[in-house]
Amino acid sequence: MPLATARVVTDRPARYIKQLVSHMGHKATTDLASDGRGTITVAAGTCILTPTPDRLELTATAVDLPSLAGVQDVITRHLVRFATQEELSVAWTAPVDGAALDLTAPVVDTYLLGHHTPADDILGGLAAATREATAGAAHMQVSSDEGALLTLLTRLTGARFAVEVGVFTGYSTLCIARGLADGGRVLACDVSEEWAAIGRPYWERAGVADRIDLRIAPALDTLRALGAEPVIDIAFIDADKGTYPAYYEEIVRRLRPGGLVVLDNVFLGGRVLDPAYQEEQHLAMRHLNDLIAGDDRVDSVMLPVRDGVTIARRR
Ligand SMILES: C[S@@+](CC[C@H](N)C(=O)[O-])C[C@H]1O[C@@H](n2cnc3c(N)ncnc32)[C@H](O)[C@@H]1O
Questions:
Q1: Residues with beta carbon inside 6 Å of ligand 1?
Q2: Are residues 199 and 88 both part of a single domain?
Q3: For residue range 27-58, what is the model confidence (pLDDT) as tens digits?
Q4: Domain coverage including residue 86
Q5: How many CB atoms lie within 10 A of CB 288?
Q6: What is the position in ligand 1's atom list of the atom closest to the CA of 142?
Q7: Atom of ligand 1 at shortest distance to CA of 189?
């Protein structure tokens, strides 16, 4: 579905949202959440209004472009009318399809893939074996640049204890295992023994199989069995998306100060930006992205790597 966003600079975002939600409540479906976010659904589509300290962020979505223009128009007119003490500039972005958002232009993508420490023959062999053995599922594997990022982050934290949620055929597991300090280990969680078995020979060839503690069980059970001590140096979450908030919570409370949690697919192929997508995984990821940005236990950044990667460091 097409969507468009606008950033409106103002020091009264919360006030405008309240005014709009209350005024439009007579002829539209409206909601004001406890975090100050407003949602207004008119016949043509929906607009989400989010307050930040110095601006009001708008995201409009509708089934087609004329309807989207209708939503943008009604919200813009009301906002401008309510702003009696300042002149608001509501400049909308060009409409995009939320399900077809490329984070990087293909040409940039190719360049990025050509400019990181290259995957060696072992990683290349595992990627090829995964394509051959898992066919359509091979896209689940992290890309070579993301794998290089994982090795780098693991080294930078001097990690001795890593956790991975979502092993698949073990490419990211291998990247993390290679970055561990001497004597380190990675607790690798997945529910599929069959997929992990494809990676094992490559873990052995790389000489890191003894650092990988594979647990075949629902990852939440494995995490909850860890005890309450802050022992995790780095964690990578790349499994069932609807459970990300629970994984994050179980992990962040066990991160040592300075430890990292890295989350993959935080854009969900662009759908996380588009309020039209309301499946459980979209709601969960949207909620988690907001939560992490405001979580005072961590410092975080969201990177436009592949399908979006968030890195959060425990304070
Ligand atoms: C996107 S893949 C992981 C890809 C992997 N990081 C890589 O680079 O190859 C997601 C994995 O999560 C696993 N998974 C799904 N639900 C799970 C759960 N409840 N507990 C543990 N693993 C789960 C799937 O079996 C699948 O292997």
A1: 140-142, 166-169, 171-172, 189-192, 195, 218-219, 238-240
A2: no
A3: 899 999 988 999 999 999 999 999 998 999 99
A4: 2-97
A5: 23
A6: 8
A7: 21
Residue 104 lies in a domain: no
Average pLDDT, the chain: 95
Q: Given the CA of residue 130, which atom of ligand 1 is nearest to it?
A: 9
Tokens standing for residue 224: 């909850």
Q: Tell me how far apart the alpha carbons of residues 86 and 64 are, in angstroms, rounded to a whole number.
A: 32
Statement to judge: residues 133 and 249 lie in one domain: yes
Residues 127, 271 share a domain? yes
Number of domains in the chain: 2
Question: What would you measure as the largest C-alpha separation in the chain, in angstroms?
Answer: 69
Lowest mean pLDDT among 49-53, 96-100, 310-314: 96-100
Distance 153 CA to ligand 1 centre (A): 20
Residue 275: what pLDDT?
A: 84
Report the pLDDT value the prediction gives residue 31, as an integer from 0 to 100. 95
Asked if residue 42 is part of any domain, the answer here is yes
pTM: 0.90
CA distance 170 to 143: 12
Residue 21: give its domain's CATH number: 3.30.310.50
Residues 141 and 229 in one domain: yes
Average pLDDT, stretch 76-91?
92
Ligand 1, pocket-test mutation among 171, 191, 202, most atoms within 8 A of CB: 191
Domain boundary among 63, 97, 131: 97
Tokens 């969900």 identify what position?
268
Q: Are residues 183 and 228 in the same domain?
A: yes
Q: Determine how β-strand 55-62 pairs with β-strand 45-52.
A: antiparallel
The verdict on 31 and 88 lying in the same domain is: yes
Radius of gyration, CA atoms only, the chain? 22
